[in-house]
Design goal:
28% of the residues lie in helices and 27% in strands. By secondary structure, it is α/β, with parallel strands linked by helices. The chain has a single domain, classed as Stationary-phase Survival Protein Sure Homolog, Chain: A (3-Layer(aba) Sandwich). Strands 3-4-2-1-5-6-7-11-8-12 form a 10-stranded mixed beta sheet, with helices on both faces. A two-stranded antiparallel sheet has the order 9-10.
Length: 288
C-alpha cells in the first residue's frame, strides 16, 4: 500500500505552473492531505493518451510532495500514482489549467481533463479546473488572474465532490469539468458541454519546428448561457459532467450527477457565489 492521501493533485502545464501552485496552496490551506504529480513540462493537447516509457523524480512544490513525470502524459501520471506508488486518493483534482477547456474539442483533447477521465476509469472520482484567458498563448502564464473567489469556488466544489464520493454507489461516474472565468467568479452555472470546433487552422514553420494555431468557432448551442462556452462568454464559472464520454463502458451515470446536483443545490454555496441550475433540462442521452 502507498501513502494515504485525501486528494491527488495532477497538472499538465508543468510543475512550475502558476495554476498548479495556486491549487496546491488552496487545498493545503483547507487542511487536505495532498500528494501531487505533474508532467515535467507543458503537455497541452495530449488528452487521455498514454506514454509507455518515462522517468520519474521527486520534488516539493508548495511544501507538497510532488512526483514529476518526465516524458509522460497526465493520464500516464495517474496510472503511475495508482499502480506504482500505490496511492488511492478519495478524489483526483486536475489543474488549474492555463486556459479554458470548453466545448467538445477541448474536452476530447485536454490533458487536464484526460487525467480525470483516466482516474474515473480506474474507480477514482475527479474534477478538472481551468482558468479562462481571453488571449491564450502557451507562452503566457497566469499570475495575477487567480484570486480569492477562485480559491473559494475551488474549495466549495472539491468539498462537494468529496461528500458525494462517500454516498455515491458509482464513484467512477463522478467526473467533472470546471471552468473559471477571466475575472473572479460570482456565479456558477451547472452547464452542459457545447459543440465547439477549431477553425482557421494555421501551420507555420519557425525555428526548425512546425507550429499549429487556430481560432475556436462556436456552433449549435455554443453561445447559450446554459453551456460551458456561453457561461465563460458571460463571465461566469461552469461545471459540466464528463461521465457521458465513457458511460457505455460503466453504464448509466445519471444517478451520480443527480447526487452532485442535489448537494450543490441543497448545501449553501459561498455567500459571494450564486448558482444557476441548467442540468434540470438536460437531455441525458444526447448531452452534446
Amino acid at each position: 500500500m502507498g501513502e494515504e492521501a485525501d486528494i491527488l493533485v495532477v497538472n499538465d502545464d508543468g510543475f512550475h505552473a502558476t495554476g498548479f501552485r495556486f491549487l496546491l496552496r488552496t487545498l493545503s490551506d483547507l487542511g487536505y492531505n495532498l500528494v501531487a504529480v505533474s508532467t515535467s513540462k507543458a503537455s497541452s493537447g495530449t488528452g487521455k493518451s498514454l506514454s509507455f516509457s518515462y522517468r520519474v523524480y521527486l520534488t516539493e512544490v508548495e511544501s507538497v510532495k510532488t512526483y514529476v513525470i518526465e516524458g509522460g502524459t497526465p493520464a500516464t501520471a495517474i496510472l503511475h500514482m495508482l499502480y506504482k506508488e500505490g496511492i488511492r486518493p478519495r478524489l483526483v483534482v486536475s489543474g488549474i489549467n492555463h486556459g479554458a477547456n470548453i466545448g467538445l474539442e477541448d474536452i476530447l483533447s485536454s490533458g487536464t481533463i484526460g487525467a480525470v477521465i483516466e482516474s474515473a476509469l480506474h474507480g477514482i472520482p475527479g474534477v478538472a479546473f481551468s482558468k479562462y484567458l481571453p488571449r491564450w498563448s502557451p507562452d503566457i502564464d497566469i499570475p495575477g488572474t487567480l484570486g480569492n473567489e477562485d480559491a473559494v469556488l475551488v474549495g466549495y466544489l472539491v468539498d462537494t465532490l468529496l461528500k458525494a464520493s462517500i454516498s455515491c454507489e458509482k464513484t467512477e461516474c463522478l467526473a467533472y469539468n470546471v471552468n473559471l472565468p477571466r475575472d473572479e467568479p460570482k456565479e456558477l452555472i451547472m452547464a452542459t458541454p457545447s459543440f465547439r470546433v477549431y477553425d482557421n487552422i494555421s501551420i507555420r514553420y519557425e525555428d526548425g519546428l512546425y507550429k499549429l494555431s487556430s481560432n475556436p468557432q462556436f456552433y449549435a448551442n455554443g453561445a447559450e448561457e446554459c453551456t460551458d462556452v456561453g457561461s465563460i462568454l458571460a463571465g461566469k464559472a461552469s461545471i459540466t459532467s464528463i461521465s457521458w464520454l465513457y458511460s457505455r463502458i460503466l453504464g448509466d451515470c445519471r444517478g451520480s450527477d443527480i447526487l452532485v446536483k442535489e448537494l450543490i443545490l441543497n448545501e449553501p454555496p459561498p455567500p459571494s457565489i450564486s448558482i444557476l441550475d441548467c442540468w434540470g433540462t438536460r437531455e441525458w442521452a444526447t448531452t452534446v
